[in-house]
């Protein structure tokens, strides 16, 4: 009899300055490695997006953060798809030339990658994105016209029959800010990431449909000291290609409380075998939910963030490892059903437990 698929969730929260995964697709090597030693990898756009760079991982599921939280809580299941019709929303606040660059990028994915896109929609008002920074250093943001975003999504879903939504919003240009300079040099927090999450969360929460976002920005001046971890975002005029590729095969959401029939191939939180997360960022909703299941939590110390929320402070039982290389070794042994203690030369003998209390009569 075949065993059930070994399923791993890889979480690297966005906008918290993760040393690995806090930049432009720099967690993709980690995702590729984990996908190679598991049957199914569930992760979020922050991990798989790399502007014009992306990688086809046939066994990876591209799940937006709010959807991942609902999945982990057992409210939503994931229904894998071979292809989605992707609708594109463009912010009215994007300048005509920059808008054309994004339309041409979308057309290019149709012609060269064979993606199935609907016609696009321009919002009926500028979205007016504003960026914020929390006291912890994490980035977040606001949308001035969220109703305009939702109206555009509604048109794509009900008129164009879109099954996933890509959003391109005009973000403020702040090329001289200390935060952006630090980010380009491989330090600090991505100043855009938190606001991007707000945009995608709103659509997923409202329509229960896959969504991801790509910011529209004026190209930055060349920087000879640019970090390789940030370089993917400076290859062209748009970050859109990786988003369209990810959404083209993103799983659909199955609401546990709806009348939609769950299929045999649907994936639920009870199917998750292991979760890999930065050791200092264990306070997210998805991890808190999955820590209540039988999933093995693996906390990676080397991936430092601006958060200070280790698993022990929350009563979460986790295996601490130094690096993702060590995490990969643990996943391999876990999948094989081998105790990690057996790989150590200092395996101790079994101890006898005492039995106290009355004997059975």
From TrEMBL:
Pfam family, one: DUF3326
Name of the protein this chain belongs to: DUF3326 domain-containing protein
């Amino acid at each position: 009899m075949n065993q059930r698929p070994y399923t791993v969730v890889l979480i690297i929260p966005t906008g918290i300055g993760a040393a690995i995964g806090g930049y432009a697709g720099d967690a993709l090597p980690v995702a590729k490695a984990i996908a190679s030693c598991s049957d199914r990898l569930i992760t979020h756009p922050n991990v798989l997006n790399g502007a014009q760079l992306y990688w086809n991982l046939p066994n990876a599921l591209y799940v937006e953060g709010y959807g991942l939280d609902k999945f982990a809580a057992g409210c939503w299941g994931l229904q894998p798809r071979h292809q989605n019709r992707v609708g594109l929303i463009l912010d009215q606040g994007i300048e005509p030339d920059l808008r054309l660059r994004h339309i041409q990028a979308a057309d290019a994915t149709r012609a060269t990658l064979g993606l199935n896109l609907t016609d696009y929609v321009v919002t009926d008002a500028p979205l007016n994105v504003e960026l914020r920074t929390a006291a912890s250093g994490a980035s977040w943001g606001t949308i001035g016209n969220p109703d305009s975003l939702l109206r555009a999504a509604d048109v794509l879903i009900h008129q164009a029959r879109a099954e996933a939504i890509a959003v391109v919003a005009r973000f403020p240009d702040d090329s001289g800010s200390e935060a952006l300079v630090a980010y380009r040099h491989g330090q600090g927090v991505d100043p855009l990431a938190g606001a991007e999450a707000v945009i995608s969360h709103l659509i997923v929460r409202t329509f229960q449909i896959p969504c991801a976002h790509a910011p529209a920005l004026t190209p930055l001046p060349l920087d000879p000291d640019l970090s390789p971890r940030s370089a993917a975002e400076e290859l062209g005029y748009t970050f859109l290609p990786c988003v369209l590729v990810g959404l083209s095969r993103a799983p659909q959401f199955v609401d546990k409380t709806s009348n939609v029939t769950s299929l045999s191939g649907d994936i639920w939180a009870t199917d998750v075998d292991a979760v890999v997360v930065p050791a200092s960022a264990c306070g997210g909703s998805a991890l808190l939910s999955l820590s209540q299941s039988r999933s093995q939590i693996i906390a990676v110390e080397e991936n430092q963030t601006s958060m200070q929320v280790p698993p022990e402070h929350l009563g979460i039982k986790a295996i601490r490892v130094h690096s993702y290389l060590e995490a990969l070794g643990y996943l391999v042994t876990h999948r094989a059903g081998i105790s990690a203690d057996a790989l150590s030369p200092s395996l101790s003998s079994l101890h006898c437990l005492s039995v106290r209390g009355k004997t059975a009569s």
